User: Fold this.
Amino acid sequence: MSQPIPSQFKLAFRPAAAPGAMVTGPNVRFTVLTSRLLRLEYSPSGEFEDHPSQAFWYREQSVPDFTVERSPERIEIRTEHLQLTYLITPAGFSAQALSIEILATGAVWHYGTSRSHFNLMGTARTLDGVDGAVRLDPGLMSRQGWSLVDDSNTLVFNEEGWIAQRTHPENLDLYLFGYGHDYLGCLREFNRVAGEVPLIPRWALGNWWSRYWGYSQQEYLDLMAEFKARGIPLTVCVIDMDWHITNTGNACSGWTGYTWNRELFPDPPGFLKALKDQGLKTTLNVHPAEGVHPHEEMYPEMARRMGIDPASSLPVPFDIPEPDFARAYFEVLHHPQEENGIDFWWIDWQQGQRTKMTGLDPLYWLNHLHFYDLARDKVRRPFIFSRWGGLGSHRYTIGFSGDTHTTWASLAFQPYFTATAANVAYSWWSHDIGGHQSGIRDGELYARWVQYGVFSPILRMHSTKTPIMTAARGPMMPKFSRCRAPRSACATPSYPTCTAWPGATTSTPAPWSCPCTTPIPRSKQLIARRASIGSAAN
Assistant:
């Protein structure tokens, strides 16, 4: 029998719009969320969805001024910025029946036009294995002044705060953003209905050391001492997958693991304490897809929690949509590690987009659960380190962009990729600075990559195990990495913190990595706020 959903996952959604914001007709419902954001629904049964969806959590907004004119043949809604016209028909929405004029630009959207050719683009799930550019998903902004989000096929949250199927999956559920060229206004209105971008701890803005390498405990501590001796300031230690047992002796490939490799790390609590004593935060890499096998120290407890006899040695399958599994996943596999000193988790999910629940991408759900589980003490600023799980993922910072190729083409694409992500409010990408795999050995390429990394959201050095990937990198690190020292003269970490702060404290979010097409408002009040926020983050 399922246990109650843990309290940290029961969120204060406000999913049902105010009655005064809704206009209904035969099998249709139009909701005026703001004067520039409309929800458009068609239901063959006449029953509509009021649960929070994966992206849209806060449809309850102040009702803006608008007028409605209706007759047996048509419905017209006019706000300060939009004019909606719907010709009532039993067939529902069609290009002839439904149109919306964006008054600021004169552009007219017709149903069936899902994407503007002038869309300024958003971001992508990952850059894994990419040499150069990758196709981006559409963003929320367009030079034509409108964008459409089709939310029809997403899942919803039930009353317990858990993911669930829609009651009427046959419905159409669309959101029309008609913001003209007020791109920050578009972000503001998206954040109002989808949730704000959370502030991350200030220490996350320093230098991260990460390398896919089978370090021993002593080698890693010696390396940290060498960084300190060379004047290279670090704030975050990223321990890749060799921290756990990889030679399992059973059907598990070793990619998934939760038991420390005692041959490399004989004293995990002592190791983590030694890092913490140096002022360093630590994350562990996890690939959870293979579940829990009998070689793991925590296997007996996980098996019992999931109704499996530990004596059977049957693996515990990964089943993150199942509440009982999710509870045990955190309480047995993760919370003890956090008690020993782990500060956050690198969720390195690369194993597909399907779960037992139809339509649920495990990446989205892992990101959601890990973020709110880390927030359970209601003290620390939670964040995760994981790939982009789709619209709404701006609530789960920080993004891991994956294993890129070490080429000039990859470096050339990353500034564009980072900037356009702000068009879906996703402003905290972390890249493998210097590139991860393949490619070339080029000292200048690495130097330019680190220069870019200093002024990108997160500065995280990384590479794969191949020696050629690190041979040309050593001399380049000290000069540039000092610019991300928390107390350096450059004080670079203050910049992204300050520019993120207005979005977390006012109704005018300004992602710190905006494209140049996005005007950032300047005012004495905003400048004063940015100048005074240096000590605000913990």
User: Anything to note?
Assistant: The first strand starts at residue 22 and ends at 25.
